[in-house]
Write a structure and sequence with these properties.
alpha/beta; Rossmann fold; 7-stranded parallel sheet; 46% helix
Length: 270
């Protein structure tokens, strides 16, 4: 069983939602924290709350992870000799919704920059010193969206498919080295994920971020290579695309997303 006590964990996207839940649960389990997101005030507020409740060290870094120079500076500044990161939680992510060609392009590019490029760069940047010292861990937050193409969330699901494939491959490369890599696949979770769009989640079918964080960290501690930290149905649904033809899967997902109104979703500012 992996113990989090006395370790240092870097959590991206810690300023709200699942990232805040991961940070809070890690602090409860005794891990020091490096909290990363763009919003410095939200990170500072969370750090103050955690320090008041738990005997852990918390530092914050306001970083735009879509900016490659800022990502490189983050990796560079956390010197593995003096301030090693034992666990990296690549949680920051965003997902545009709506018909791909009918909506502005920029959010799709941002999703790739954040969900794919930053996650890969941080895995490389913090994973390399972990491999050199033969210990450490990486949790990449993917999604149930990783398992099939998703019309009206086309770029989002594709970025998460990357996270799934990439994480499984790197986990296998590192098997037996002392560095463990796990993908987490939450389903709908009660966060501000769709904030800034016309779409809202149906709260009857979502999990709480606190439950998702707790189950993810339990699964990692148990040595799992994949975590399905939400409702049981999420894992079952991830099996269907492995059985059905891809065209059938894509049509079913498209129909489901139309039923949920994602075909009409748009950014509030667009
Ligand atoms: N909620 C769900 O239903 C759900 C389901 C499956 C998987 N997930 C995944 O879970 C992860 C967390 O999602 P969430 O629901 O907690 O979303 P959220 O509430 O929207 O939070 C996203 C976090 O990412 C940070 N972030 C966004 N852009 C950033 C950037 N350019 N640089 C640095 N940080 C950035 C945000 O902080 P700032 O704005 O302060 O930068 C925020 O802390 C994502 O990877 C998401 O794909 C979510």
């Amino acid at each position: 069983m992996h113990s989090y006590r006395g370790t240092t964990t870097l959590v991206t996207g810690a300023s709200r939602g699942l990232g805040t839940a991961y940070a809070t649960e890690l602090a409860r389990r005794g891990s020091d924290l490096v909290l990363v997101a763009r919003s410095a005030p939200a990170l500072d507020e969370l750090a103050t709350r955690i320090r008041a409740a738990h005997d852990v060290t918390v530092t914050t870094r306001a970083v735009d992870l879509t900016d490659r120079d800022q990502v490189a500076a983050l990796v560079h500044d956390l010197d593995p000799a003096s301030a090693p990161v034992d666990l990296l939680v690549n949680n920051a992510g965003m997902g545009p919704a709506g018909p791909f060609l009918d909506r502005p392009f920029e959010p799709h590019q941002t999703a790739v920059d954040l969900n794919v490029s930053a996650l890969m760069a941080l895995t490389y940047g913090f994973g390399t010193p972990m491999a050199a010292r033969g210990s450490g861990g990486i949790i990449n937050v993917a999604s149930t969206a990783a398992f099939q193409p998703m019309p009206y969330q086309a770029s989002y699901a594709a970025t998460k498919a990357f996270v799934l494939s990439f994480t499984e491959a790197v986990a296998e490369e590192l098997r037996g080295t002392g560095v463990r890599v796990m993908a987490a696949h939450p389903g709908g979770t009660d966060t501000a994920f769709f904030e800034g769009t016309t779409h809202t989640m149906d709260r009857r079918f979502v999990d709480s971020p606190d439950d998702v964080a707790r189950r993810t960290l339990d699964d990692f501690a148990r040595g799992r290579s994949a975590s399905y930290p939400g409702q049981r149905l999420n894992q079952v649904a991830s099996w269907l695309p492995r059985i059905l033809p891809r065209t059938a899967t894509t049509r079913i997902t498209g129909k489901l997303n139309r039923t949920l109104g994602l075909d009409a979703a748009r950014a509030l500012t667009a």
